[in-house]
Amino acid sequence: MTQRLYYSDSYTRQFAARVIEHLTVDGQSAVVLDRSFFYPASGGQPADRGTIGGVPVLDVTVRESDKAVLHVLERPVAESEAACELDWARRFDAMQQHTGQHILSQAFLRAANAATISFHLGGDSVTIDLDVEPARLPPAALERAEEVANRAVTGNLPVRAWFPAADELATLPLRKTPDVDGPLRVVAIGDFDFNACGGTHVAATGEVGLIKIIKTEKQKKATRIEFRCGARALADYGRKNALLTQLAADFSCGVPEVPQAVSKLRDEAQAARKDLRAAREAVMDHEAQTLLDSIPAVDGRRVIRQAYPQRDMAELRGLAARLAAAAGTVALLGAAGEKAQLVFARADDVPVDMKALLLPALAALGSGRGGGDARLAQGGGMSAPWEAVAAALQQAENELRK
To the nearest 10°, the Cα dihedral for 33, 37, 43, 48? Predict the structure, then answer.
């Protein structure tokens, strides 16, 4: 079995190790070392990266049969004694985020009596799930938890990780005692928090730098908290500050006035959309009346057939509904394009089934999906040029006139 040195030392970046086994994992070369500082993915923390004998490490896992640590490599390593180096930026980021998670989990216990039930550390997102629904975590509770957490950071509390003996373990106020076989590793953050954990952590909370809650969301009956620590929190602040500064420049106002400027712009946009809808309705009313005037009714009946090179489905429906509001009128409308559409509608006094008329027309276009009822039917979705749409409408009118 590999001697897992990261349990007692999270800071060593370079070390030498002996290769005691060569193997393949999912088609990739891998090695087992006699000793390793590489952390294998577990407990919500991703695996370390780095190099072994100059070869990039793609993944680090644990073999279930004997708990050996498997180092998956980009290509085989020939050396029996290999120089190893961790990707320190990745490792220290994991140390900051994982230690910050312990602190924030304890802070939520103290501020909102909310316990952490899961933790995930991704390449960008860091989350914990709490055993309460969002209604129990109003903004004030989030602020209290964040304040408690950052007080622990600025207190620069010592962080200790060790395997306590059974009698000592029984005296420790663990947040949660997992059901595991073998020795239990405990991470203590001063007297602030005690938790069973096999991950890598900073030596003192000051190295976490900052803990900032980004957002919350409902996750079944739990609440998911997304947060950032250390360098991630600083980078997040930098991005948002740059965005806010740019918005202030675009609005020609100070940063504090950006919310009011955005609110004013939103109100203006809503008013403009309302005016635009009214204008479109008026234009469509005029278009429908023009079509009705251009095709007079014969014996109380008229058919308006119109193919467009391109048109929005909602507009086709609106125009068809307006035309069908006139007594004795049947509207056969279509739009060509990548997703051609047909809309057939009739007045209440025309005894014709529009859905039955539509389906053969769609088949003439190469099939498509359609539906509706006897009064209004629509369908399409296939690619068709204007000429094909016009021919399908002509076919429908011929069938109608029979």
Answer: -90
